[in-house]
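Sequence only, no structure available. Ideas?
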Amino acid sequence: LWSTAKTVGALLDEQDVDVKEHDQIDPAIDTDISKDMKINIQPAFQVTVNDGGKQKKIWTTSTTVADFLKQQKMSIKDEDKIKPALDAKLTKGKADITITRIEKVTDVVEEKIAFDVKKQEDASLEKGKEKVVQKGKEGKLKKHFEVVKENGKEVSRELIKEETAEQSKDKVIAVGTKQSSPKVEKVSASGDSKTVVSRSNESTGKVMTVSSTAYTASCSGCSGHTATGVNLKNNPNAKVIAVDPNVIPLGSKVHVEGYGYAIAADTGSAIKGNKIDVFFPEKSSAYRWGNKTVKIKILN
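Reply:
I predicted one. Tokens follow.
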């Protein structure tokens, strides 16, 4: 072009060149015109950026994704996902960039460890009587999970370590084996003496062998209420078993081997015949109980 304009801006006005606000002009519009000068104009276009779920539009003259991110000083971590690739070309109409922010964190979940109930014979205690020698105490288990989040939402969770923070303490019950002594009374009648011997009644109860499983109140679809109306979610420490009422009447007090004293307060569609289901507040305790054969004593 031949021109008498003094500056780049004046030349562009003179030639009616349409320059937008965000276009890049080299040299700048206030630069003085010189002979054989070259003027380069890069038209700007809008890029739609979705950064971690937040969308915005930015004007740019960048030609690649990498150049755009550098120009905008956007920090990108090695784990982050970028679409399209860094070397992809940006042009008007094809300028959408999606950045998925990846975050890896460690989540520590604490669970309770159920205590065992052990019985030991005690010759100093009368047969049929029991006494708690040592109270049981639940332990604590810490589970470490590696959690991956995309744009702040959890997408995966992997167990990487387990550690026992506190050991559980067994509940120890002394069971009497001492035979009760007969009571002797001497009664005199008409000068003759006779001896009356009476023995204390030993505790009775029906003992049976059953197959057992375990359940919690937090399963999918569970109401948390037993067949007799006990709210297990509000009473997580309740000792409850589910039974077949035709075998063990509801409301019966029982003693379950390895579980302790409990109430037959629930039923279940799968609990038929010589089978019971013991309640635990945590799934981990229920899993540890598993499926096993135990002895159960119906006390009343």
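The chain has four domains: 8-42, 45-100, 104-118+132-171, 206-298.
Hope that gets you unstuck.
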